[in-house]
Amino acid sequence: MNGLTIHRKIEEHTGLLIFGILIVSAIGGLVQLLPVLNQESLETATSNTRPYTAAQLTGRDIYIREGCSVCHSQQVRPLIAELERYGPYSRAGEFVYDRPFLWGSKRTGPDLHRLGGKYSDDWHRIHLLDPRAVVAESIMPAYPWLDKRSAKETGNITAKFIALRRLGHPYSDEDISGAEAELEGLTEMDALIAYLQVLGTGLSGEDEGAAL
Amino acid sequence: MTQSSNYYHDKITLRLVQFSVIWAVLAMTAGVYISAELVWPTIDFGQFWLSFGRLRPLHTNGVIFGFGVSALMATAFYSVQRTSHVPLFAPRLAWFCCYAWQLIVLLGGLSLLAGWNSSKEYAELEWPFDIAIAIVWVCFGIVFFGTIATRKIKPIYISNWFYGALIIVIAMLHIVNSLAMPVSIDKSYSLYAGAQDAVVQWWYGHNAVGFLLTGGFLGMIYYFLPKHAERPIWSYRLSVVAFWAFVYSYIWAGPHHLHYNSIPEWVQSLGMAMSVILLAPSWATMINGIMTVSTAWEKLRSDPALKFIVLSLAFYGLATFEGPMMSIRSVNVISHFTDWTIGHVHSGALGWNAMVTYGTFYFMIPRLVDRELYSVRLANIHFWLALAGTMLYVMAMWAAGVSQGLLWLSVDQIGELSFDFKDIMASMTPYYLLRLVAGLIFLGGTVLMAYNLYMTVRGRETARVTVPAVDPAYGVGA
Ligand code: HEM
Ligand code: HEM
């Protein structure tokens, strides 16, 4: 009964109710988020993980724009079947330059985290233009517009590099001034493939248990 | 016009309901379309804006923010006035919320088709929209809490706690999760990277489900269910305990979206434990609701609105039972990444969110326009279509999801994979086809409701003109 009497006060006071909800709902978030946001190992790159080049970053932004992540995960779980199907399981240190993360929540198509080097550039080109040309029963959409647009149209790459440097990505002045030139002559298709080919290449023999 | 509709600002509610119904039809049409694309992948005709990757976020944003939030604003405004015995505080600001929100949903939807996409689930809209959403949300809060602050009865009624939690917690989640470095009007980079971004995003994502798709709609239950059943809420004490347990424990459960992913193990375990605990406050609320109608079962037979509301509670119970089970790592290992998740989502979204909203609309609209529902028969048909559509959808996705999960993981004695991904993918077609049919049935019901409500509202004009001309002897209002 006593508890309910105290509760009467909250129920009769708008400010107390607002304050109460705010405090009670904040606790769980604080306990989980603060340690995670301060955990250095989650911000430490694995040995082969590099900031994206101009072409890769542009490709990644195209991947985001086209919503590839609604059908593809980028997260190999440490389970026998997944190691077998996709390769070594994913490590936090491989994603330190991923803003935002693209782990996904649905595998309508296969996981793509260990995709880099699995197929040739030409395979990807044909597949993206018409997936059914490669995999007859595929339900993946075709992306015929990608090779008609130049990679420079995707967005201002110099501004992107500057923004990412502000967020702590180690781009040098030369990286930034040379970014625009790197996209010279590339189509959006080229950029996307450059991104797909770098996926999952962040591990090397130096990383613990890299073969898994 | 009755006394009450002059006293309360009900035109805002009516307008919001109209928008909500329009978004429901449009966004579910998008849902049906993407269902079809998973069966016939070429029906995007090479058009970028019809591509699955762009239409899917349009579907989710349309149902959640267009249909869902408009309905929540409508019912919050309707019930807060009646439980506070005062008209809305700052009605002009309320009108601003109403129209500004519709503009955000409309332009936001178009921006998704154009490929502006932050790719964070349920927070896809880019930073200009994030800022606009924050502003409208604060205004929503001012109107809502302002009305409560000026109330004429002492206790704040329980439905208002839930709407209040919706407003406060969503504001907190939205602001923290959307922090980003803008590059241009259509592009920004998240302030968080990789694993940290994942944890922040699912803290947001799960609680958008928790405080919007669950908490907000529980506000509807707590006002409309007792009102409609003409019974007080079964246990006041249970409501108090369940409310605070709900607000406290939901927030911890986000990491169940990241089992076996590259985030610290303790975060996953904590998320799992709290998700299982969450079953208790979720079911407490359901039981409270069911017990409230338990002495009014006979009303169920004649009243489609109440039928919808009671059935929605059953699906709420189902989704909040399934959710904690899926949060257990050894279950999640199968369900994660599969159509099982999609089945879980839609047992909540169709069976719970959409049904309780439909029931509420059928209750509210006739009262708002002071007229009988145009057709009870159509509403009853809608009820059966909604039930059939939901059941078919959920069962198809369960079957699809469980088989996907098991087949993907299946290895033989020497550790070789038993099935190719392609073959598992190809075996999904019958389920996807069933889901398409289910979606069409559900959408058909929704369109019937739109028609029924439209005729109910339109009837008012004719009534106003003709009433004085009718001789009372012939039975006005019969
Ligand atoms: C006690 C309550 C609940 C718990 C513990 C819970 C738990 C879960 C779990 C474990 C997942 C799967 C995550 C994954 O493997 O990726 C999930 C997904 C989801 N649930 Fe629930 N659930 C609950 C209630 C609800 C309700 C009532 C709804 C209402 C619609 C809902 C909507 C969703 C959505 C939209 C997703 C998909 C998220 C995504 O991957 O995009 N849940 N939930
Ligand atoms: C006619 C009814 C509907 C149909 C046919 C439909 C169809 C779909 C389809 C095909 C997907 C994509 C699944 C995939 O990627 O494999 C989806 C996702 C989703 N839908 Fe619906 N939907 C409908 C109604 C609703 C409603 C009313 C809501 C919410 C209130 C809703 C919320 C969602 C959410 C949150 C997702 C994302 C799930 C996730 O990421 O895990 N849908 N829907």
What features would you describe in this structure?
The complex is a heterodimer of chains A (212) and B (478). Chain A is mainly alpha-helical. Chain A contains 8 helices and no strands. The longest helix of chain A has 24 residues. Chain A starts with a helix and ends in a 14-residue tail after the last helix. The mean pLDDT of chain A is 94. Helix content of chain B is 75%, strand content 2%. Chain B has a two-stranded antiparallel sheet with strand order 1-2. In chain B, helix 6 runs antiparallel to helix 7, helix 6 runs parallel beside helix 8 and helix 12 runs antiparallel to helix 14. The longest helix of chain B has 38 residues. The two termini of chain B are 17 Å apart. The complex binds protoporphyrin IX containing FE (2 copies).
Question: Keyphrases for this structure?
Answer:
heterodimer; A: 212 residues; mainly alpha; 8 helices; globular; B: 478 residues; two-stranded antiparallel sheet; 17 helices; 2% strand; disordered C terminus; binds protoporphyrin IX containing FE
What's the count of strands of chain B? 2
Residues in β-strands, percent of chain B: under 5%
Helix content of chain B: over 70%
Alpha-carbon Rg of chain B, integer: 23 Å
